[in-house]
Design goal:
alpha+beta, Rossmann fold, Tumour Suppressor Smad4, 2 domains, nine-stranded antiparallel β-sheet, 15 strands, 32% helix, 35% strand, globular
Length: 311
Protein backbone atom coordinates (compact mmCIF):
# COMPACT_ATOMS: atom_id res chain seq x y z
CA UNK A 1 0.00 0.00 0.00
CA UNK A 2 1.39 3.39 -0.97
CA UNK A 3 1.86 5.50 2.17
CA UNK A 4 1.79 8.86 0.41
CA UNK A 5 -1.50 10.51 1.32
CA UNK A 6 -3.39 12.21 -1.49
CA UNK A 7 -5.12 15.41 -0.33
CA UNK A 8 -7.83 16.88 -2.55
CA UNK A 9 -8.60 20.40 -1.34
CA UNK A 10 -11.19 22.82 -2.67
CA UNK A 11 -9.23 25.64 -1.08
CA UNK A 12 -11.78 28.34 -2.00
CA UNK A 13 -14.62 26.53 -0.19
CA UNK A 14 -16.24 28.15 2.79
CA UNK A 15 -14.75 31.56 1.93
CA UNK A 16 -11.30 30.44 3.11
CA UNK A 17 -12.39 27.90 5.72
CA UNK A 18 -11.04 24.97 3.66
CA UNK A 19 -7.61 26.63 3.41
CA UNK A 20 -7.47 26.93 7.21
CA UNK A 21 -8.51 23.28 7.56
CA UNK A 22 -5.72 22.29 5.15
CA UNK A 23 -3.16 24.01 7.38
CA UNK A 24 -4.38 22.00 10.38
CA UNK A 25 -4.26 18.75 8.40
CA UNK A 26 -0.71 19.28 7.13
CA UNK A 27 0.45 20.25 10.63
CA UNK A 28 -0.80 16.93 11.99
CA UNK A 29 0.70 15.00 9.06
CA UNK A 30 4.08 16.62 9.73
CA UNK A 31 3.81 15.71 13.41
CA UNK A 32 3.16 12.07 12.51
CA UNK A 33 5.84 12.15 9.77
CA UNK A 34 3.38 11.10 7.06
CA UNK A 35 4.12 11.96 3.43
CA UNK A 36 1.46 13.73 1.41
CA UNK A 37 0.67 15.42 -1.90
CA UNK A 38 -1.80 18.33 -2.14
CA UNK A 39 -4.09 18.61 -5.15
CA UNK A 40 -5.89 21.98 -5.21
CA UNK A 41 -9.06 22.32 -7.23
CA UNK A 42 -9.22 25.21 -9.69
CA UNK A 43 -12.67 24.87 -11.27
CA UNK A 44 -16.10 23.38 -10.63
CA UNK A 45 -15.51 19.73 -11.64
CA UNK A 46 -11.79 19.65 -10.94
CA UNK A 47 -12.13 17.28 -7.94
CA UNK A 48 -13.50 14.62 -10.30
CA UNK A 49 -10.60 14.87 -12.76
CA UNK A 50 -8.04 14.91 -9.92
CA UNK A 51 -9.59 11.74 -8.48
CA UNK A 52 -9.51 10.12 -11.91
CA UNK A 53 -5.78 10.84 -12.20
CA UNK A 54 -5.14 9.43 -8.71
CA UNK A 55 -6.92 6.22 -9.73
CA UNK A 56 -4.85 5.92 -12.90
CA UNK A 57 -1.60 6.68 -11.07
CA UNK A 58 -2.14 4.09 -8.36
CA UNK A 59 -3.55 1.44 -10.66
CA UNK A 60 -4.77 -1.40 -8.38
CA UNK A 61 -3.17 -0.21 -5.16
CA UNK A 62 -5.27 1.75 -2.68
CA UNK A 63 -4.01 5.21 -1.71
CA UNK A 64 -5.07 7.15 1.35
CA UNK A 65 -7.34 9.99 0.25
CA UNK A 66 -8.23 13.04 2.33
CA UNK A 67 -10.93 15.38 0.97
CA UNK A 68 -11.09 18.95 2.29
CA UNK A 69 -13.99 21.09 1.11
CA UNK A 70 -17.75 21.13 1.03
CA UNK A 71 -20.35 18.45 0.40
CA UNK A 72 -20.17 19.09 -3.34
CA UNK A 73 -16.42 18.36 -3.48
CA UNK A 74 -16.91 15.18 -1.47
CA UNK A 75 -19.75 14.16 -3.80
CA UNK A 76 -17.45 14.49 -6.82
CA UNK A 77 -14.65 12.41 -5.28
CA UNK A 78 -16.89 9.63 -3.97
CA UNK A 79 -18.77 9.33 -7.26
CA UNK A 80 -15.61 9.24 -9.38
CA UNK A 81 -14.24 6.43 -7.23
CA UNK A 82 -17.56 4.58 -7.20
CA UNK A 83 -18.05 4.79 -10.96
CA UNK A 84 -14.54 3.39 -11.46
CA UNK A 85 -15.31 0.49 -9.07
CA UNK A 86 -12.82 1.68 -6.46
CA UNK A 87 -14.02 1.30 -2.88
CA UNK A 88 -11.22 3.40 -1.38
CA UNK A 89 -12.02 4.65 2.14
CA UNK A 90 -12.10 8.44 2.35
CA UNK A 91 -11.13 10.70 5.21
CA UNK A 92 -13.29 13.82 5.01
CA UNK A 93 -12.42 17.16 6.59
CA UNK A 94 -15.28 19.68 6.43
CA UNK A 95 -14.33 22.96 4.78
CA UNK A 96 -17.43 24.15 2.97
CA UNK A 97 -20.55 26.21 3.53
CA UNK A 98 -23.09 23.54 4.47
CA UNK A 99 -20.96 20.64 5.78
CA UNK A 100 -24.02 18.42 6.28
CA UNK A 101 -22.09 15.17 5.80
CA UNK A 102 -19.72 16.22 8.60
CA UNK A 103 -22.68 17.18 10.79
CA UNK A 104 -24.25 13.74 10.30
CA UNK A 105 -21.18 11.51 10.66
CA UNK A 106 -18.18 13.41 12.04
CA UNK A 107 -19.33 16.19 14.36
CA UNK A 108 -17.54 14.69 17.39
CA UNK A 109 -14.28 13.93 15.55
CA UNK A 110 -11.25 16.24 15.54
CA UNK A 111 -8.80 16.53 12.65
CA UNK A 112 -6.14 14.92 14.85
CA UNK A 113 -8.35 11.89 15.50
CA UNK A 114 -9.13 11.43 11.82
CA UNK A 115 -5.49 11.67 10.74
CA UNK A 116 -4.41 9.24 13.44
CA UNK A 117 -6.87 6.70 12.03
CA UNK A 118 -4.89 6.81 8.79
CA UNK A 119 -1.55 6.58 10.62
CA UNK A 120 -2.62 3.48 12.55
CA UNK A 121 -4.57 1.85 9.68
CA UNK A 122 -7.86 1.83 11.58
CA UNK A 123 -10.59 -0.13 9.76
CA UNK A 124 -13.00 1.87 7.63
CA UNK A 125 -16.76 2.01 8.24
CA UNK A 126 -19.23 1.33 5.43
CA UNK A 127 -22.06 3.83 5.77
CA UNK A 128 -25.45 3.95 4.02
CA UNK A 129 -25.70 5.81 0.73
CA UNK A 130 -28.34 6.02 -1.98
CA UNK A 131 -27.42 4.82 -5.46
CA UNK A 132 -29.30 6.62 -8.21
CA UNK A 133 -29.61 6.86 -11.97
CA UNK A 134 -30.86 10.11 -13.45
CA UNK A 135 -33.02 10.09 -16.60
CA UNK A 136 -31.46 7.77 -19.21
CA UNK A 137 -27.89 7.85 -17.90
CA UNK A 138 -26.10 4.50 -17.87
CA UNK A 139 -23.83 5.48 -14.96
CA UNK A 140 -24.98 5.18 -11.38
CA UNK A 141 -24.22 7.88 -8.82
CA UNK A 142 -24.31 8.07 -5.03
CA UNK A 143 -26.26 10.52 -2.88
CA UNK A 144 -24.31 11.31 0.27
CA UNK A 145 -26.82 13.68 1.89
CA UNK A 146 -29.89 14.28 -0.24
CA UNK A 147 -31.32 15.09 -3.63
CA UNK A 148 -34.14 17.61 -3.71
CA UNK A 149 -36.43 19.29 -6.22
CA UNK A 150 -38.39 22.52 -5.96
CA UNK A 151 -37.93 24.99 -3.11
CA UNK A 152 -34.93 23.00 -1.86
CA UNK A 153 -33.12 23.54 -5.18
CA UNK A 154 -34.18 27.18 -5.29
CA UNK A 155 -32.54 27.89 -1.91
CA UNK A 156 -29.31 26.20 -3.03
CA UNK A 157 -29.33 28.25 -6.24
CA UNK A 158 -29.77 31.46 -4.25
CA UNK A 159 -26.87 30.55 -1.91
CA UNK A 160 -24.58 29.68 -4.83
CA UNK A 161 -25.47 32.89 -6.65
CA UNK A 162 -24.67 35.07 -3.62
CA UNK A 163 -21.65 33.14 -2.30
CA UNK A 164 -19.01 35.71 -3.30
CA UNK A 165 -20.83 38.76 -1.90
CA UNK A 166 -19.71 40.56 1.26
CA UNK A 167 -23.03 39.70 2.93
CA UNK A 168 -22.57 35.99 2.13
CA UNK A 169 -19.15 35.96 3.74
CA UNK A 170 -20.59 37.50 6.91
CA UNK A 171 -23.47 35.00 6.93
CA UNK A 172 -21.04 32.12 6.38
CA UNK A 173 -19.16 33.19 9.51
CA UNK A 174 -22.29 32.53 11.56
CA UNK A 175 -23.50 29.55 9.44
CA UNK A 176 -26.61 31.47 8.33
CA UNK A 177 -26.26 31.26 4.52
CA UNK A 178 -29.08 28.79 3.93
CA UNK A 179 -31.47 30.09 6.58
CA UNK A 180 -31.15 33.62 5.20
CA UNK A 181 -31.89 32.32 1.67
CA UNK A 182 -35.26 30.87 2.72
CA UNK A 183 -37.08 34.18 3.05
CA UNK A 184 -36.27 35.81 -0.34
CA UNK A 185 -37.08 32.44 -1.96
CA UNK A 186 -40.61 32.55 -0.52
CA UNK A 187 -41.53 35.03 -3.27
CA UNK A 188 -41.44 32.21 -5.82
CA UNK A 189 -42.43 28.93 -4.12
CA UNK A 190 -42.49 26.25 -6.85
CA UNK A 191 -45.58 24.09 -7.42
CA UNK A 192 -45.21 20.87 -9.41
CA UNK A 193 -46.39 17.26 -9.64
CA UNK A 194 -44.53 14.00 -9.03
CA UNK A 195 -45.38 10.33 -9.41
CA UNK A 196 -43.53 7.06 -8.97
CA UNK A 197 -43.27 3.89 -6.91
CA UNK A 198 -41.71 3.03 -3.54
CA UNK A 199 -41.04 -0.69 -3.10
CA UNK A 200 -43.53 -1.27 -5.92
CA UNK A 201 -46.35 0.78 -4.40
CA UNK A 202 -47.46 3.66 -6.66
CA UNK A 203 -47.87 7.26 -5.51
CA UNK A 204 -48.73 10.61 -7.05
CA UNK A 205 -48.69 14.06 -5.49
CA UNK A 206 -49.78 17.38 -6.99
CA UNK A 207 -49.06 20.89 -5.72
CA UNK A 208 -45.64 19.72 -4.46
CA UNK A 209 -43.23 22.40 -3.22
CA UNK A 210 -40.29 20.21 -2.17
CA UNK A 211 -39.62 16.58 -3.10
CA UNK A 212 -36.45 15.34 -1.44
CA UNK A 213 -34.69 11.96 -1.42
CA UNK A 214 -32.92 11.77 1.92
CA UNK A 215 -29.86 9.88 3.09
CA UNK A 216 -28.85 12.39 5.78
CA UNK A 217 -31.58 14.28 7.65
CA UNK A 218 -29.65 17.56 7.34
CA UNK A 219 -29.75 19.95 4.43
CA UNK A 220 -28.48 23.47 3.87
CA UNK A 221 -25.97 23.86 6.66
CA UNK A 222 -27.78 22.02 9.43
CA UNK A 223 -31.45 22.51 8.56
CA UNK A 224 -33.12 19.26 9.58
CA UNK A 225 -35.24 18.73 6.49
CA UNK A 226 -36.62 15.47 7.94
CA UNK A 227 -37.37 14.80 11.59
CA UNK A 228 -37.90 11.06 10.98
CA UNK A 229 -34.93 10.06 8.78
CA UNK A 230 -32.10 8.18 10.54
CA UNK A 231 -28.77 8.26 8.68
CA UNK A 232 -27.56 4.91 10.03
CA UNK A 233 -30.56 3.02 8.63
CA UNK A 234 -30.23 1.28 5.27
CA UNK A 235 -33.30 2.90 3.74
CA UNK A 236 -34.44 5.63 1.39
CA UNK A 237 -36.44 8.42 3.01
CA UNK A 238 -38.63 10.36 0.59
CA UNK A 239 -40.11 13.54 2.05
CA UNK A 240 -42.61 15.85 0.34
CA UNK A 241 -43.72 19.34 1.31
CA UNK A 242 -46.95 20.06 -0.52
CA UNK A 243 -49.91 22.46 -0.75
CA UNK A 244 -47.84 25.19 0.93
CA UNK A 245 -49.18 28.73 0.59
CA UNK A 246 -47.60 31.94 1.81
CA UNK A 247 -49.83 31.86 4.90
CA UNK A 248 -48.94 28.24 5.77
CA UNK A 249 -45.24 28.69 4.94
CA UNK A 250 -44.29 30.62 8.09
CA UNK A 251 -45.79 28.08 10.57
CA UNK A 252 -44.09 25.30 8.59
CA UNK A 253 -40.72 27.11 8.70
CA UNK A 254 -41.16 27.38 12.47
CA UNK A 255 -41.74 23.62 12.69
CA UNK A 256 -38.61 22.90 10.62
CA UNK A 257 -36.22 25.41 12.21
CA UNK A 258 -37.46 25.76 15.79
CA UNK A 259 -39.76 23.01 17.09
CA UNK A 260 -38.35 20.38 14.68
CA UNK A 261 -41.61 18.47 14.45
CA UNK A 262 -42.61 18.99 10.82
CA UNK A 263 -44.01 15.44 10.77
CA UNK A 264 -47.09 16.88 12.52
CA UNK A 265 -47.79 19.26 9.63
CA UNK A 266 -50.56 18.41 7.12
CA UNK A 267 -48.24 19.87 4.48
CA UNK A 268 -45.54 17.20 4.98
CA UNK A 269 -45.60 13.52 3.90
CA UNK A 270 -42.83 11.04 4.76
CA UNK A 271 -42.33 7.76 2.89
CA UNK A 272 -39.51 5.24 3.24
CA UNK A 273 -38.36 2.05 1.56
CA UNK A 274 -35.57 0.30 -0.35
CA UNK A 275 -36.33 1.06 -4.01
CA UNK A 276 -37.69 4.37 -5.31
CA UNK A 277 -38.64 5.44 -8.80
CA UNK A 278 -39.56 9.11 -9.17
CA UNK A 279 -40.83 11.23 -12.04
CA UNK A 280 -40.79 15.01 -11.64
CA UNK A 281 -43.48 15.95 -14.13
CA UNK A 282 -42.82 19.69 -14.53
CA UNK A 283 -39.53 21.54 -15.19
CA UNK A 284 -38.20 22.51 -11.77
CA UNK A 285 -34.86 23.38 -10.21
CA UNK A 286 -33.14 20.79 -8.01
CA UNK A 287 -29.95 19.95 -6.13
CA UNK A 288 -27.87 16.94 -5.20
CA UNK A 289 -25.55 17.27 -2.19
CA UNK A 290 -25.75 21.05 -2.54
CA UNK A 291 -24.94 21.21 -6.27
CA UNK A 292 -27.65 22.83 -8.40
CA UNK A 293 -29.62 20.82 -10.98
CA UNK A 294 -31.08 23.29 -13.48
CA UNK A 295 -34.81 23.29 -14.32
CA UNK A 296 -36.14 20.39 -16.34
CA UNK A 297 -38.30 17.30 -15.85
CA UNK A 298 -36.51 14.42 -14.14
CA UNK A 299 -36.75 10.65 -13.85
CA UNK A 300 -34.79 9.13 -10.98
CA UNK A 301 -34.35 5.53 -9.85
CA UNK A 302 -32.84 4.89 -6.40
CA UNK A 303 -31.55 1.89 -4.45
CA UNK A 304 -29.85 1.48 -1.08
CA UNK A 305 -26.03 1.27 -1.22
CA UNK A 306 -22.93 1.69 1.00
CA UNK A 307 -19.48 3.30 0.79
CA UNK A 308 -16.46 3.11 3.18
CA UNK A 309 -15.23 6.12 5.20
CA UNK A 310 -12.70 6.66 7.93
CA UNK A 311 -14.92 7.84 10.79
Amino acid sequence: MDKTIQIICHYAAGNGYAEKQLEKVTKELHRLQLAYIIHRTNYATHASSITQKIIEQFDETHPHIIVIGGDGTLHQVVNTLYQNHFQIPITYIAGGTGNDFHRTWLKDKSIEQLIQQIAFNAPATEIPMIRYQLDDEEKSHLILNNMGFGFDGLINYYVQKQRHSAAAKWLQKFRLNYISAIFPSLRSIPHFSVKGTLDGKPFQFDQVNIATIINSPYNGGGIRISDVAVATNDEINFTLFHDVTLSSALPLIYKVLISKNQRTSPNVTHLKGQHLTLEVLHPVIGQVDGEVLYPQTYTVECHVARYPFNL
